[in-house]
Write a structure and sequence with these properties.
binds ribulose-5-phosphate, alpha/beta
Length: 226
């Protein structure tokens, strides 16, 4: 165990180890983005399943995966993925996720939607009684000021580079007590090309540290954590 590792780091590593076991020879694999995925990738490389094909949701993930000897290709010709593995910023008792802390939310959602199984890895502090962080958005550069005006309480993320697809990363500070209604509202704004709300139906498996947690367990687990 590396010195100076936090409990959260250890839980992310445990989740990464558990997720690496899910990847089998010949699978087409979507690789998420963030510090949890950074811990999953070496575990996957050690396991080295034969003949896998990987697509990455960010340049950082692509570079790390390639350095580890994992075969990464552009996500252009693969029609489906067998599995996609990613982290999350928050998980609520109903299983809604907020993603996009690393600004890769649009590619992460495209990859998750293309996968037969979208597997989410979190440390325990990501489980929250209600979603509360500002919601990451990717906005079309064209008409940006008009989209921001329509959103009202979104701010461009300071220092965030444009996404690989040219979008601008912003964060929306609004109440998140009805994620489904908010997702519908955002989906209806043309300049919002992506948002970080991922519905429970999208998630096939959730690992909290090294343990797979069923959706029905979430409310009690979150309540017990206080
Ligand atoms: C990046 C993401 C990440 O999955 C999310 O921010 C969690 O990050 P980390 O694994 O570093 O805690 O959505 O856009």
């Amino acid at each position: 165990m590396a010195s100076g590792e936090s409990q959260s780091d250890r839980e992310k590593a445990a989740a990464g180890e558990a997720a690496a076991e899910l990847v089998e020879a010949g699978m087409r694999v979507g690789l998420g983005t963030g510090s949890t995925v950074e811990r999953f990738l070496p575990a996957l490389a050690r396991r080295a399943p034969r003949d896998i094909r990987c697509v990455a949701t960010s340049a950082a993930t692509e570079a790390q995966a390639a350095a580890l000897g994992l075969p990464v290709e552009p996500f252009e010709t693969l029609e489906r993925l067998d599995i996609a593995i990613d982290g999350a910023d928050e998980v609520d008792p109903d299983g809604w996720l907020i993603k996009g802390g690393g600004g890769a939310l649009l590619r992460e959602k495209v990859v998750a939607a293309a996968a037969e199984r979208f597997v989410v890895l979190v440390s325990a502090e990501k489980l929250v009684p209600r979603l509360r962080r500002a919601l990451p958005l990717e906005l079309l550069a064209f008409g940006l000021a008009a989209t921001l005006a329509e959103l009202g309480s979104a701010t461009l993320r300071a220092g965030a580079p444009p996404s690989p697809d040219g979008g601008r990363i912003a964060d929306l500070a609004v109440p998140l007590d009805d994620p489904a209604a908010l997702a519908r509202r955002l989906d209806a704004i043309p300049g919002v090309v992506g948002h970080g709300l991922f519905p429970p139906a999208m998630v096939a498996e959730l690992f909290v540290a090294g343990r797979r947690v069923a959706p029905a367990e979430l409310p009690d687990l979150i309540a017990a954590a206080g």
